[in-house]
TrEMBL record, chain B:
The chain crosses the membrane at residues 9-30, 103-124, 136-160, 180-199, 242-263, 283-309. Gene3D superfamilies: MetI-like. Residues 97-306 form the ABC transmembrane type-1 domain. Keywords: Cell membrane, Membrane, Transmembrane, Transmembrane helix, Transport. It is found in: Cell membrane. The lineage of its organism: Bacteria, Bacillati, Actinomycetota, Actinomycetes, Micrococcales. This is ABC transporter permease. Its main location: membrane. It comes from the Bacteria. The keyword Transport applies. Belongs to the binding-protein-dependent transport system permease family.
Amino acid sequence: MLLRKKLATGVIAAAAVIALSSCAGTGGGTLGEGSGGAGQSSITVAAAQGIPQLNPAIRTFAWEEVLFPLLWNGLTQTSESGEIEGDLAEKWEVSDDQQTWTFTLKDGVTFSNGDPLTAEAVVASFEYYLAPETATQEKTKLEAITSVEATDERTVVFTLDQPTATFPAGIVWVKVMDMDELDQIDKNPIGTGPYTVKAFTPDNSVTLVRNDAYFGEAPALEEIVIEKAAESTAAVTGLRSGDIDVLWSVPQGDVAQFEGDSAISLVRPDNPSQWPSWEMDTTSAPFNDVRARQALAYSIDREAVLAAAYADQGKLAPTNNALGENNAWFGGELEDYSYDLDKAKALFAEAGVTEGSTLTWWGVAGQYPEWNTSAEILQASLKEIGITLKIENNDIGTWVEKFYPAGKSYPATIVPNFQSTPPEPAYSLNFYLEGRCECNWVNPDFQAAFDAAVGEPDEAARKAKWGEVQTIINREVPLIVPIQATVVTATASALDGVWVEGGGQLHLENASFKG
Amino acid sequence: MTRFILRRVAISAVMLIATSLLVFIVLRLLPGDPVITRLGSTPGVDAEMIERLRAEAGLDAPIWQQYLNWIAGMFRGDFGQSYFNQFSVNELIAQRLPATLELTAIAVLLALVIAVPTAVFASLKPLGWLDRVLTAISTAGMALPQFLIGIVLIVVFAVTLRWLPARGYVPFSEDPGLNLVGMILPAVTLALASAPLLIRFLRASMIETLAAPFIRTARGKGVDRAGVVVGHALRNALIPGLTMLGLIVGYTLGGVVIIEYVFGIPGLGSLAIDSVFKRDYAVLQSVVLLISAMFILTSLIVDLLYGVLDPRLRVGKKRG
Amino acid sequence: MASLIRDCELGRNVANLTTQKLLLPIMRRGGSLRRTPWQTWVAVGVLGLIAIACIAAPLVAPYDPTQQSPDRFAGMSGAHWFGTDELGRDLLSRVLHGGQLTLFIVLGATLIAMVLGTAWGMAAAFLRGWVDELLMRLADTVMAIPQMLFALVFISAFGATPLKLAVIIGVLLTPTTARLVRSSVLGEVQEDYYTAAISYGASKGRLLLREVLPNVAGPITVQAAINAANALLLEASMSFVGLGIQPPEATWGTLVQQGYQKMYQSTGYVLFPAIFIFLTIWMLNLLADQLGETAQAKGRK
């Protein structure tokens, strides 16, 4: 009796363990057939984040930008090849001093509620973006605007307080809304884009349907459902089984398994301009000393970071530059900060960071596994030169409060973050300007060089001037740019026309099924 | 009897108020605030603007004032306003409630479907091999955290066999078929998590009842075995099972928090997790209170039913 | 699941029903009356083995758990029994070292719950009257909020260091413990020896420490095992939604979460820590069952 009982329990225990192991053992799984095929006109798009609100001006999370080209239009837009071209604007002219810009609107554009688009509506939207009480991240690009006026039904004139040759690139993300409907924007947003919102559950899903009143060519897909997939493993599973057609920002580690999978295509930006930015407070010890910042730059094993943390999805940034080496504006006399612990140790010592010192890594809990891995790599490197890196990961609210907004002091702390910027340096390197970068870096030479570059209409001369800007940043190391990261999007291979901007913004407006 | 009911209802009301206070205070302990989270790290924002946004959201008022506003709003049926969009908390909850209720209902039902027959079979021959096997399985089953059950089910049925979706939710009104297909894995997960205990409890209760004199009498009268088991023993064993059911409902409601996250279901649980991360107090406090209220209400109904079914308990006995 | 056992056995009874009285005897009677001490030994043995392996991790573990190597996501092999993770660290070593932290949190939480809960329950049972009412209502209120939700909020509020996690989980487990202690003590003070001793003028405090406490030690020990299982479960669940101990430190829960994220690269990563969690909770439940039977048997004598 006793023996039988023993046996029974033992067998069950073994069975349970085997069942568990065999289940997980098949995690490698078979490859998917994908979904799609002819006749399908609806797709499901997923990302790890949710969309909490729809107002493009007060954009809360980067993922909301997927809606920008679908629901809204700006005066200008970025093409797939990175050119700035007209969107609502048919053409534009600039005065010789680069301070007065005149845009002419396309004819026959209407909002999704049938109202015609007027120059007044464009002015109203810009005024909303410019209003001091509107917290919008576009503000820094619009600072030069002193007035915006509608001179007739179809003409909008901007007056700037400083020469800005790159102005059309700076207003790409200012989306024109029907301002009379602003108080209903989360429930019934009125824009001019190819799609309108059919249903919206904040943080969970947005269902878009074709806007029949769209002024451009009608989009191929009838319906686009954008969903949150908090759990990345489940999202990858969904993509493989065909429940999901597009997965934005695939976890870097999962990218390799899709390579060579005929059912899935990977979409990468042509000119990646998303860069991890590790910020330090440059106004307090030890990072108020440029040598400590340089030392930190040398102590980063960028190759290991790229390989282990970002699964090789990106490019090394040995010169610590926010601009990638294939960016058209990349240049300057740049110091190479490749991994060199001897140099790091010497420079740290000069800056007073000696063996036994402790630095803190202030990361975010539960998200961004690549930050953790980066931190662990840096921790191991610093350990070799006798410096302790204490890794603290907090939830996002606690994390952000430590260093944001710019001006806070957080000595001996490294804060990982990332910037998604356009390839245009005027709107990526402007992050280093005073009052924006939480690194609190202030440098008059940089400021002067930056203004000079922005105001230079001649491209060749501008390139030289951007080189000077990059040289200053390179020497001063206001923050760390270990690599350029590529945002990889996976789609069902039956899907065509999906592309990604350098900063990672997904474009679905031209998506269609092949054949 | 009336006194018993009144007392129970009064106790539940007091508990609700205490819960609201507790929830409110604990939430205010969270560092960070919705305004800063909402700004993300929008460059070029200064402290002044943050103060202004805080005032707009009513976050600069004294805490007791904020609490009273919340409670006063609730009496008007207004739970407040999300800090992140133009939706009222009522609307957000209305969007999410159906999924949670459906999931909970299906899961509890499934747990019963699994547990009742299993317990009956196990109890027929206490310590027999079937009983042993079932008991061993249920003991092991109790050791599996819900999310692990979820992972195992996803790996088996979604990743490997590809029979069922790993995630996603379609509203019932849109497509009842797809809705139910999507509910299978999460509901089974929750049911498997709560079934083992239900099995253990019902089994013990059945064994006890089967040994009772009235069963022997029934048998003696010539009622067949199945008739005795189902008609007499099970019915009697289920009465104490009622209390258990209340607890299972409560447990399942707690479990949906994790399970909705794992399976990407837009219910109250995932709304709560989203709100924690965003510091959306207005939403979070109401969601936590609502889930707690659902639990308190379930307990209340179960107790009242119990009072009706079991006369011994009607008298207001001393707590103990 | 452990939380449910606790809920059921020890009464999340909001009404005047004494779940305790109603359920415990029923659950313990029917069927498994024969004492089966070997199960206790198995449970103690397995738990002891896991505990020793974890505590002695620095000696037992084959590698330094933070030692990175280029051998990333290696499968199971003689060199790496459980394989390696995304940085080429040995998973067996990580699991064992992670077990230390897990053990600390679980034991810490259990200890806190037992101490606070015993004090809370005894105070209620001895003082009776409105204090009792107030204390028990407070316990009911805390218990009415789903633990997961409450833990989520507390951990976001206070952060997730091992000590804080132990305190938060401990506090969350306190009310149920208090309820159990209170009803056990109440049962005890109605016993003849107690009434007799009081009528002979014995001091209440003395009786409490000398007689009552030892007599309720049985159910309290059972509750401790249940609490430990519950603490492990809560910790793992919190880690799974990303709020547990943060990397590079890791508990089993953190490892499961990370492993699940990388399930497509390595199956062992999620599997082994999960097995450790499962085994530990299972053994704790088994232990609680057995101890419960023993306590019950003693009680009958």
